[in-house]
Known about the structure:
Strand content: under 5%
Subcellular location: Membrane
Order of helices and strands: HHHHHHHHHH
Protein name: Ceramide synthase 4
Pathway: Lipid metabolism; sphingolipid metabolism; Sphingolipid metabolism
GO molecular function: sphingosine N-acyltransferase activity
Main location: membrane
Oligomer: single chain
Helix content: 55-70%
Largest sheet: none
Structural class: mainly alpha
Amino acid sequence: MPRWRNTSWWKDRDSLSWRFAFYLFSFFGGLSVLYHESWLWRPAMCWDNYPNQTLKPALYYWYLLELSFYISLLITLPFDVRRKDFKEQVVHHLVTITLITFSYSTNLLRIGSLVLLLHDSADYLLEACKMFNYAHQWRVCNSLFIVFSLVFFYTRLVLFPTQILYTTYYESIANSAPFFGYYLFNSLLVMLQLLHVFWSCLILRMICNFTKKGQMEKDIRSDMEESDSSEGEEAQEHPKLKNGAAQGPGVASTDGPRNRAAWQLANGHMLAT
């Protein structure tokens, strides 16, 4: 099927640049807003003088920007290319929107901003990885995927439970009794952590394909309908056939675990975090 007739092909590529731009701007913009705040480096200080904490204008506008972005993701999700983790993405966006709204209304903006910054730290790397894949820059794509995986594992599986969940569960009630918002807020954070584990398992499965099999399968999140519509595209985008024969003269071999990473991104289907 010609690429100009492949709706899924265009849907993925049209959304990459603006998502990359937003995640990049949001992460470094949020970092500039929070860099001089003491509670960025010591999450326990998020509870100092709570709830009588002053809301700075920069943090207010950054919060509104993040809220509007995730609302737009939720609205447009049914019109994007459908993945096997569609339900998980819906849950993720709903939980995120609820967390942003609830933390703003209860003045939990300090800890809420740390959650947002932590999540934005890996997302722009993922979008950049997919863009380089579509540009057929396999080495850059593979390198970015490795960096993305390391950042994702560290922020989601190390920093989030040991810094964010710890301070919200224990340090937040060190000087006060638990209240309704305490249980709701922590329940939503636990739901996020479960999604982190789910997507981490998918990434680990991809890494196993890189290192053990020496070849990449199609995206493990792609459903049958999408896979059928993009079979011809996979053969065009990657220079290797299933039997390993090159598609034309001058095409470099892609044998080996690292260079096979392009197979996993052949359709640009990656994890939504």
